[in-house]
Amino acid sequence: MGGSLSCRKRDTGVTAPTPILQVRFFGLPDSGKSSVVRFLTTGVPSLKSKEGEVDNDMQWVTHRKVKMVLWLSETSVQKEIANEGEVARALVYIVDGSIPEKLAEAKEYLKQQLEQTAGAPNLLILLNKCDKHSFIFLEEAHDALGLDKIRDRHVRIYACSAATGEGIHEGLDWLCSLFQLEKGTYISRTGKSNT
């Protein structure tokens, strides 16, 4: 009796770790951060203001086969993440688009947060509350936030509504399209415009 040879790969029971895209959500109070994150995690729009609050600062979401950890924060990412290897690769800034008077404050807050954030992660701005009658035009918000002056990263603004879910997935589609998987890590693609 002779031994048999097999060309099959031996199953060691160990699988490669799933790559994770680190995304930080931030915004001024009452902009709808928790409601947007709640929609992404549950798929259910938030109809009441307190209903949208998220219990945890960190949420796991898979969008278009990209596994993401969403960090919900009011402060800079350095205070949130201790391991430098886990610094956010993308930022999502939630802005209340129904109160035009707050855009100057939103611009300053964005500038402050970008200065405090390590590296130059891609930036998605979700102009929330597009279902309200007082919602401003995207072009007006784009100009008021000074987005043309941000040249060190990919930037795009989308209208959205946490109350209906409108525009949220479209924004994340754009964000996910900016990354490619290389050696088990998500890296930013180059050559895309910031419009």
Automatic annotation (TrEMBL):
GO terms for molecular function: GTP binding; GTPase activity; metal ion binding. It comes from the Eukaryota. SMART domains: ARF. GTP binds at residues 27-34, 128-131. Mg(2+) binds at residue 34. Keywords: GTP-binding, Magnesium, Metal-binding, Nucleotide-binding. The keyword Nucleotide-binding applies. InterPro entries: ARL2/3, P-loop_NTPase, Small_GTPase_ARF/SAR. This is ADP-ribosylation factor. It comes from Babesia bovis.
